[in-house]
Amino acid sequence: MTFELFYWPGLQGRGEFVRLAFEASGTPYVEIVQEDGPGQGMDGLLHTMDDPACTDPPFAPPFLRVRHPSGDELIGQTANILAYLGPLLGLVGESPRARRWVNQLQLTLADLVAEVHDGHHPIASRLYYSNQKAEARKRTADLIEYRLPKFFGYFERVLANNPNAGGWLSEGALSYADLSLFQVIEGLYYAFPRAMSGFAKAFPRCQSVRDAVAREPLVAAYLKSSRRTAFNTTGIFRHYKELDRASPF
Known about the structure:
51% of the residues lie in helices and 8% in strands. It has helices at residues 15-25, 41-50, 78-89, 96-120, 133-160, 176-191, 199-202, 204-215, 217-224; strands at 2-6, 30-31, 63-68, 71-76. The termini are far apart. InterPro entries: Glutathione-S-Trfase_C-like, Glutathione-S-Trfase_C_sf, GST_C, GST_superfamily, Thioredoxin-like_sf. This is GST C-terminal domain-containing protein. One of its GO terms (biological process) is glutathione metabolic process.
């Protein structure tokens, strides 16, 4: 079985949540857009996504092609990809309840990621940020002052209510939801350094998850490697000085 990840080049985006699962578990994978063979690169991504003969096409990247001896399978949507990979990579518990729970946490993080994106693109994704700056200021103000405390208050409560989980979100072991929580916090530190200045004190359990993930040996090695694309202003988490605000925490 081999894994091929399809995502836009030059940015972390939603593909990073899948990369972290592979990297944290030491699982080999191929980034299709970084390859130059037949069916690879950007042409390979677009052809695979838009192939009229595909019976189960993905809507948009990220999507994963799993090559089985019995045939290939395409899996789309970040949370769906991680729900599939979690048991294979040892990043979720074995019980059905644990798997549903971690998927629920991942879907909640996906909601937060969508709100972060809509902070800098509140009118339409196809418009440039420069075309919606005034609206972005209003939307981001609400994100920082109300939505971020609400989301992280929830995750802080989850961690506080599970004292036997060893500081993780589920069953005392690192899960893909912990990796994704790390990525969201890292992205927000990049995007809103002023607003996030009080985060660690306000949400110490969430910060502890972030720190624990960063200390995982395989994750730490990945973060220092050239495979980790830097945050930038073409991704989900974007730093625009005019959108950052004083910390609400």
